[in-house]
Amino acid sequence: MSKYPAAGLRRSPTKCTLRGTMGPLVAALAATTLISCSTEIARVTEPSAVDRLSVCHVSGAAGVPITIRASELAAHRAHGDYVTTIAVHKESTTTSDSTSFARIGDAIARACAIRLVRSELTTAACRITIAVESGVYEGSVAPSTDPSLERLPLVIDVPDITLRGSFVMPIDAKARALGTSPSTGSDLQAVLVASPGLISVRTGNVLEKFAEPLIILNGHPAGSRGDGATIEGFVFRSGNVAPDAIVGGNAVWGMRVQRVTVRRNRIEAGFAEPIEFRASSARVEQNLLTGRSGSCAFCMFGPGT
């Protein structure tokens, strides 16, 4: 069981502020900028945007996904409907279209804002999918003035969000992940990489430490929860690639989340604990982990499954 005291985030549509007592891990993460509800969203779209959009057609607390023309979006939003697919394109032209973004973190912030407006804190009418196109998405835990950098860690703490990269994991006849194939070259990969490399600092035993994650899935004790999150189709890199680099950080770290799935990702060398969950229920399958790591490749601290 984790020894870190519980901490939460008090949210609004424009910002997130920490509340509660913070242990070493949470305090370290608080020193970074959590991007889950940012006002600094760079909205973008592709020059040849498709004419069709998927939206959640809302009736009361219920919703059903439907397909509409892009020109009909404003009318559906006025009714209370919301988009269910948000695109991320690394190379894009800036515009006011809020269904497509240049950074993953900005797409997550948009999904977060949609959930908060509807008070969908623990359950949602429809799943929102963030579809990340191929490209190298470089991010940093440290503050940066570079508008192209992802602001790590990426935080998902609202329900039923799918973060789907363009990497297609080859699977063998026994349903085991193979990692690479001629059909999944670098031009087809969504890569999330930290620069500088992620670190971990241990202050005692294996539980008494903090680590810098690429992605956090969080359930606040008395607030919104990242339940039902799915992370798939990415190549994760720690940034610790030098032969003498110290392993550190997590690719995916979860706390108090349920019904989570992490699948078909390639997690490369240099993470201390590539996948770590605490007090959570998660399905982790068909991922390929390569190279050296720290104490465990997949860490689960109870209670959880």
Q: Which descriptor suits the 3D outline? A: globular
- Assess the beta-strand content as a share of residues: 35-45%
One letter per element, helices H and strands E, the order comes to EEHEEEHEEEEHEEEEEEEEEEEEEEEEEE
What percent of residues adopt helix (DSSP H or I)?
under 10%
Strand count, sense and barrel status of the largest sheet are:
7 strands, parallel
Mean pLDDT: 81
Distance between the termini: 13 Å
Class based on secondary structure composition and strand pairing: mainly beta
Strand numbers in spatial order across the main sheet:
9-7-10-14-19-22-25
Return Rg in Å. Answer: 19 Å
Number of helices: 3
Tally of strands: 27
Q: What low-confidence regions span 5 or more consecutive residues with pLDDT below 50? A: 1-49
Written account of the structure:
- With 305 residues, the protein is mostly beta strands.
- Helices cover 9% and strands 35% of the residues.
- The protein contains three helices and 27 strands.
- The strands form seven sheets. A seven-stranded parallel sheet has the order 9-7-10-14-19-22-25, with helices on one face. Strands 12-11-15-20-23-26 form a six-stranded parallel sheet, with no helix packed on it.
- A hairpin with a 4-residue loop joins strand 1 and strand 2.
- The radius of gyration is 19 Å and the shape is globular.
- The two termini are 13 Å apart.
- The N terminus is likely disordered.
Keywords:
single chain, 35% strand, disordered N terminus, 305 residues, 7-stranded parallel sheet, mainly beta, 6-stranded parallel sheet, 3 helices
Map the helices and strands.
Elements lengths: L6 E5 L4 E5 L3 H7 L13 E2 L6 E8 L2 E8 L3 H7 L2 E2 L1 E4 L4 E2 L5 E2 L2 H14 L10 E5 L2 E6 L9 E2 L2 E3 L4 E5 L24 E5 L5 E3 L6 E3 L1 E6 L11 E3 L2 E3 L12 E6 L4 E4 L2 E2 L7 E4 L3 E4 L2 E2 L8 E4 L4
